[in-house]
Amino acid sequence: MSKKEKKAWSGRFTQTTRPVVERFNASLGFDRRLYRQDIRGSVVHAIMLGRQGIIPEKDAKRIAGGLKRIEGEIDRGEFRFDIADEDIHMAVERRLKEIIGPVGGRLHTARSRNDQVATSFRLFIRDAIDELTGKIRKLQSALFAKAREHLDTIAPAYTHMQMAQPIRLAHWFLAHFTALDRDVERLGDARKRVNVLPLGSAALAGTNFPIDRDWVARELGFDSVSKNSIDAVGDRDFAAEFLFDVAMTGVHLSRFAEELIIFSTSEFGVIDLPDAFCTGSSIMPQKKNPDVPELVRGKTGRLIGHLVSMLVVMKGLPLAYNKDLQEDKEPVFDAFDQLSISLEALAELTPELKADVKKLAGRAEDGFMTAVDVADRLTMMGTPFRESHAIVGKLVRACIEKGVGFSGMTAKELGAIDPRLVKVKPGGITPQKSADGKDTEGGTARRRIVQRLKEIEKEIKKWR
Amino acid sequence: MSKKEKKAWSGRFTQTTRPVVERFNASLGFDRRLYRQDIRGSVVHAIMLGRQGIIPEKDAKRIAGGLKRIEGEIDRGEFRFDIADEDIHMAVERRLKEIIGPVGGRLHTARSRNDQVATSFRLFIRDAIDELTGKIRKLQSALFAKAREHLDTIAPAYTHMQMAQPIRLAHWFLAHFTALDRDVERLGDARKRVNVLPLGSAALAGTNFPIDRDWVARELGFDSVSKNSIDAVGDRDFAAEFLFDVAMTGVHLSRFAEELIIFSTSEFGVIDLPDAFCTGSSIMPQKKNPDVPELVRGKTGRLIGHLVSMLVVMKGLPLAYNKDLQEDKEPVFDAFDQLSISLEALAELTPELKADVKKLAGRAEDGFMTAVDVADRLTMMGTPFRESHAIVGKLVRACIEKGVGFSGMTAKELGAIDPRLVKVKPGGITPQKSADGKDTEGGTARRRIVQRLKEIEKEIKKWR
Amino acid sequence: MSKKEKKAWSGRFTQTTRPVVERFNASLGFDRRLYRQDIRGSVVHAIMLGRQGIIPEKDAKRIAGGLKRIEGEIDRGEFRFDIADEDIHMAVERRLKEIIGPVGGRLHTARSRNDQVATSFRLFIRDAIDELTGKIRKLQSALFAKAREHLDTIAPAYTHMQMAQPIRLAHWFLAHFTALDRDVERLGDARKRVNVLPLGSAALAGTNFPIDRDWVARELGFDSVSKNSIDAVGDRDFAAEFLFDVAMTGVHLSRFAEELIIFSTSEFGVIDLPDAFCTGSSIMPQKKNPDVPELVRGKTGRLIGHLVSMLVVMKGLPLAYNKDLQEDKEPVFDAFDQLSISLEALAELTPELKADVKKLAGRAEDGFMTAVDVADRLTMMGTPFRESHAIVGKLVRACIEKGVGFSGMTAKELGAIDPRLVKVKPGGITPQKSADGKDTEGGTARRRIVQRLKEIEKEIKKWR
Amino acid sequence: MSKKEKKAWSGRFTQTTRPVVERFNASLGFDRRLYRQDIRGSVVHAIMLGRQGIIPEKDAKRIAGGLKRIEGEIDRGEFRFDIADEDIHMAVERRLKEIIGPVGGRLHTARSRNDQVATSFRLFIRDAIDELTGKIRKLQSALFAKAREHLDTIAPAYTHMQMAQPIRLAHWFLAHFTALDRDVERLGDARKRVNVLPLGSAALAGTNFPIDRDWVARELGFDSVSKNSIDAVGDRDFAAEFLFDVAMTGVHLSRFAEELIIFSTSEFGVIDLPDAFCTGSSIMPQKKNPDVPELVRGKTGRLIGHLVSMLVVMKGLPLAYNKDLQEDKEPVFDAFDQLSISLEALAELTPELKADVKKLAGRAEDGFMTAVDVADRLTMMGTPFRESHAIVGKLVRACIEKGVGFSGMTAKELGAIDPRLVKVKPGGITPQKSADGKDTEGGTARRRIVQRLKEIEKEIKKWR
Predict the structure, then answer these.
(1) Lowest pLDDT segment from A223-227, C342-346, D366-370, D390-394
(2) Pairs of residues, one from chain A and one from chain D, whose beta carbons lie less than 8 Å apart
(3) CB–CB contact C345 A113 (8 Å)
């Protein structure tokens, strides 16, 4: 049998495929990763064909049996991949015919590679969403545990990387937790659009056979069936949306990573990353480098790049299937892998972060971080806030000039700036008092954080 | 009063801002577009401050009155913008104090620009989502009307831009309709995450005042209040997600545009774009150029670019507010504008598209587009599909060699290829029969399209 | 020997690396591709160390010998890669010490992984530029041959995908040729910035040893040595610039691909892609799909995505080495591979393109494509061009109404539109005359194309 | 005169343009910015037409005179822009005819908007390159001056944001200087490809008139004329390349900005940004925020986004002009503006940066930053470097355990780790000695920096 004869579609062709084209076209090198999804879909398709009397039921059974055997072969690494098969779908069908003979040729009834590929790919992304959701939850659990541990750690919080206001460190851990909550929600929304069955759209027009799409959908766990066959075979929105959600999560991790890197410099020195998550230098024996957060931050580039790839592929593409769409898989596979391992690494790292509680508390005393509180007290005494703000601005300037904090100002000095300051006693507002003053929903007061921790604890129970 | 004194935050500063810095920092040039949202938020904030007794109720009323007067001034173009105000928020507050005096300084009690900006921006994007949704719906309505008009137009459908199978043209219009349905759904999902009130988070820690966030949320139409103040002031996920949704919709429009451009070439010649949507050439008097779809396609670049901008801005940014975030608005404004006008232009163009029904029908006869149907009939007679496919491949080759279509083959010639072909009578399968054979959900059979049109008709009623 | 002891940098560490971290950090999976470059650099470095008396010359020789042996082992697939080695550089050094003993530990004198990695990576990209240049030249040669073949093929040219003016088809092939010329030039410019030796910068400050950087640069073919050690170890501009150049070339290929796809539709039907470059359909036996150009077009997304990745990685990164930079290699490797194979496929495809010369000539008669020529003749007779343009506009409209071309208008009809038209005789301007009228540099006149072909022929000789 | 009649291309059209299309198509809102370039090109074109006898010389003079008058009108803000003019080119031509009558209609002889737009746009980008080059040079001058000022400031340098080795602070300023050198070089390379005259390509085929392209090129300062008219009207590589160069420079600025932000935190506290370059908080009176570097960093997103936009617009576009290309200008204009002001702001900021020389020197004593030097000394004594590295690793660990620096270890303790350490005397290596040991090209030794400063001083003279 000549090589050419092996192509399932070669009937009308008078030339064999050029080697460079074979190499160029073949997606087998990466789409073999879809073998479980492909086989899952094909088994259900075959059984449906049998149930509907489209092919003999015994043939359907033989096909299903053959497919399961192939799955085992691939699982065990015994399957021989051949680039001439083009893709995993053809590879599986070729092997099927080797195993069960020409009856294997009945499998491709009432479907096309166009709807078959879309089905496998949706199954993959659905699984990927579920797996990533689990991994985000694991990182969130670690952040939650840390928040609980640091309920009573007072720390400076930053805007513009300048010390801003005292907070409870728990609040910072929960800030990252909160961002990740949105990621899970967003993936869940994407899942609805992923989980629509395209099988039955065939090449683009639907099929001549009396298939049962609803049954197939139910068996494969799809929520619904696609409503327009042209759209269904050319739609890759679900992949782009998945890639956006992954990139967005990656951006969140990069923000956490950036803070870990900065907070663990010797200059900040408030977070210690365990040795087991750092590496050394090939030349500088004293170095301990925060590799994990740096890589997490760096990988954001890749995730954004993959999203761009997918959108560019789709831009200006006519409807239905075009070969350009073969470029959809690698970005999705790699984005999934990179986010997975980033989440795993951070989920293992987070429990071992050591915060220097004492240094944080000391830092929270610096930098006039209770200035807002002073201004707010003036305001509570009836001063319009803008005026209060101006008064405290002058107070800060006076302190800097004198080289002291608020508590270093005498009543006389305070009075010279503004008589109302004497009553406010700026020096008496401790960071903890400041934090606990922020007693509205979402604020950093102890009471609010305790309440939020309780809420989360309840939610976490639902995750399992 | 020196210029310096005008800065609300200048208390502790010893130098005045450099002109280049003023020019560089100022966002007033673009964020003035948020004035309605800013004022809406401030009015509700002020009233709440009064209700809670944080500021005197009469002051709250004067503030609200002043703000409404300012809105009118801006509406009427009477407001004097001054770059030294930095941004729209400061500009409004400055003017408020001009109008109602120092009591205007009470407005900024219990809030910070950080939560104020986030609130205005969320209101803007919420409005943008609603407006875009309406515009997508309008384009969908036009597509729906066209689908109805072309229920009985038989046309070739393409994969790889090669003629593939006969369809009803309605099916093609509905394919684009279906993609846009996902866009509306996606925007709706994003809206949930946009519609969370950040006000009350103040600078990043929450506020010392007993504000009523739930009341503010209700008054401003927010679904809920943010749960972590650090996260709330630095979160711009909602902008990124909006930009993704806009880019995705833009990609859909670019696909529609590409097809319009190709289908209206003289070579295809099956779609005619009305003169009113084309322009001519400055040099070639005979030209009629499809400017509208070309621009729609081109603008996709810009929409993807804006999404990238936003993600890059956020990458590696520490939590809470950093000035980098000022770069969030222009991409959102421009993406909204560009998608809006693209949708409007296509919604006006679509009803006027003329499809050349006769040419389409003729085209649908060409190209062996019923080959699948021939193969399927063989399969229905018991031949495994792969074998049927191979037989039809040979048939196509024989026809090409003879220079005829299926109907140009004699029974003898058919029999020579495969005896089963004689019974199938390939020449007898008309494009319409082919289309109507695709009678499963999502297929192009008349019955299925009629049913889908009915469904959509019902849905459309709910849109209003 | 415990696993931990294997890390070259582990002296100060008290914990061993976590498995997930090892997996996360390791770049060996992809940077092994740099083994030749790494070894080339190390051999020269070692010899230089010997020449300068920094290490004993006999040790240098043993090191060089060991390295060459390792290169052979990797070439032959005999080298055992171990993820615990982290990267190719450590893997080679580890093996070196296995082969020649502790003296292998002298190799890392006066260098750091920071400058070593940068050196290997620059060598790789230099090689990649040279290889891609060769491949672009090959495609250009094919385009040139086609241009020569189609010197006398008259064809319609398009703007806005609408027929615009008659050209010689050679001109179209040379248009693509010209764009590729810029790509070669751009890669050549990038090469200058790639070809700067960073070795000797060590970790970031330079080295304590009296190394001879100029000698190393000469031996490795670098044009110069880097001038600032901090910059040298953190600079990845050369990778970003390479990725831009690759993406730009990819965009050019996508434009060529788009035209091939459209021109080979049955509707256009003027270009035939050979069977050997197409594939069929799994369901539609009649299909012949232009997979190669579609994939080329699709891969543009990936190339643009890789460029974005790299820029995002570098955005906001402090100077010198940060682990984020490990993300630099995969985009470069993949961009190189994808562009390489795209160029190869197109270089093989181009010679086999069949243009339907007759159909093109016929098409060139249609569509009033000589309208500019009519207007120009009016202008040459003294009519201001704008007026000429308007007159021809009316002529075109009249022809459309009558359903004829220019030659279908009687003198009387012409005179009724404008008396000057009678003299111009619009119907007499053949497409060939039209083309040959464009006789200025860059124009499509035969004389100009012949001249351009000669120029290129001369240039091509210099390529070899 | 009806509105429709105003369109220069409307001859063959039977419908007037829809308002939404007019609004959608019009580029006048942004391309008016090209008026000087458009007029410059048109004046030279008209004079050439006269010189070549294509139009009467006196008409050419009237046209040139009219154009200059229009330039003055626009300069002075007296020109009335009307969206119905579509773009700046049509607006100028319309006004020309108002001023000099129908003879103005002769200007568009032998050209098309396609080559006219490309010419104006290239002139704009050429000017932009020159202006940006000047601005980069200004920032470099400021960095150079700072480097000179801090020749003898010893400071810690970082890899992975962890203290790595002592350097002279001049070296750090020069690192940023060096990166910018590449940007200037890259822009210069792009300029060659920008500076090619497309005028004379007309619509896409060249022109029927005997124009003198070389003369036009010389008059407009172009280096050469384009060699293929189809390529010339559809080529926007020069815009994409410009956008890449701008984005790359932006990435460099973002890296400088990131370091300024981190170094000016209170925790690092080694760089002070002057008040005039910071802003305060609307709520926190003590805040002084590094707005300028933050905005510079943020704007990188926008620059990368613009590059993406341009590449996406061009992806898959057929050759020659397509309306999509109208999307080329706004990203270029905005990228130019944003990079310009970022450069200006940093060039004004840099001279005023205050480095805390004392704190830096103290910091440079910390952190075992001379560890490499200790290892190098061991190596110079004959120990293989890897072994030296391991010994110093143990030394560092011992110091950490004892809570001292190298100088806190007794000879006995040193000997216990390794006898060779006693001779090396790790505690005696001062940061300055360490820095000055790095005495190879590109190293941080005083001698090398002095030499580099001299080289740069010479180069700077050539800039003017």
Answers:
(1) D366-370
(2) 126
(3) no
Please state at what angle helix C213-220 crosses helix C35-51, rounded to 10 degrees: 140
Question: Residue D354, SS3?
Answer: strand
Tell me the average pLDDT across B326-341. Answer: 97
What is the CATH number assigned to the segment(s) B18-109? 1.10.275.10
Architecture of the structural domain at D114-207+226-362: Up-down Bundle (1.20)
Q: Is the pLDDT of residue C286 over 80?
A: no
Residues near B358 by beta carbon (within 8 Å), at least 6 away in sequence: none
pLDDT tens per residue across span B260-315: 999 999 999 999 998 888 888 777 777 789 999 999 999 999 999 999 999 999 99
Q: Minimal CA–CA distance to A6: which of A103, A117, A95, A138?
A: A95
- Closest CA of chain C from D54, distance in Å: 7
What integer pLDDT is reported at residue B8 of this predicted model? 67
Q: What is the mean pLDDT of residues D193-222?
A: 97
Q: Using one digit for the tens of pLDDT, what is the confidence trace for A394-435?
A: 999 899 899 999 999 999 999 999 999 999 999 999 999 999
Give the integer Cα–Cα distance in Å for A158 and D267. 12
Q: With bands split at pLDDT 50, 70 and 90, how would you rate the model's confidence at D2?
A: very low
Which of these, A82, A94, A70, A80, lies nearest to A9 by C-alpha position? A94
- Residue C267: Cβ-neighbour burial (10 angstroms; 0-12, 13-18, 19+): buried
Q: B125, B238 in Cβ contact below 8 A?
A: yes
Given B2, B160, B266, B282, which residue is catalytic? B160
**What ranges do the domains of chain C cover?**
18-109, 114-207+226-362, 363-463
Predicted ipTM of the assembly: 0.95
Strands B271-272 and B354-355, by their bridges, are antiparallel
Mutate to test the interface with C, among A201, A284, A323, A339 (most CBs of C within 10 A): A323
Q: Which residue in the block uniquely carries the two structure tokens 């293929």? A: D228
Tokens of A95: 């092997």
B42: its two tokens: 């401030």
pLDDT band at B6 (very low <50, low <70, confident <90, very high): low
Looking at residue C276, its pLDDT comes to 87
pLDDT digits (tens, 9 = 90+) for B219-246: 999 999 999 999 999 999 999 999 999 9
Is C160 a known active-site residue?
yes
Annotated catalytic residue C306: no
Pick the CATH number of C363-463 from 3.40.50.1000, 2.60.120.330, 3.40.605.10, 1.10.40.30: 1.10.40.30
Share of chain B above pLDDT 90, in %: 87
Count of CA atoms in the C-beta half-sphere (13 A) of A211:
32
Q: What single-letter DSSP state applies at residue A289? A: B
| Per-residue model confidence as pLDDT tens digits over B370-411 | 999 999 999 999 999 989 999 999 999 899 899 999 999 999
DSSP for B143-177? HHHHHHHTTT-EEEEEETTEEEEEEEHHHHHHHHH
Which residue in B319, B394, B442 is closest to A225 by CB distance?
B442
Ranges of H-type helices in C324-418 = 329-349, 357-365, 371-380, 385-402, 411-417
Residue count of chain C, please give it: 464
Q: How far is CA D438 from CA C42, C210, D107, D172, D177, in A?
A: 21, 9, 66, 14, 20
Distance CA C35, CA C189 (A): 26
Assign residue C382 a region (left: φ > 0; alpha: ψ between -120 and 50; beta: otherwise).
left
Candidate from A202, A300, A312 with C-beta closest to C304: A312
Contact C265 B291 (CB under 8 A): no
**Residue type at B441 in one-letter notation:** E
> What is the CB-side half-sphere exposure of residue D356 using CA atoms within 13 A?
18
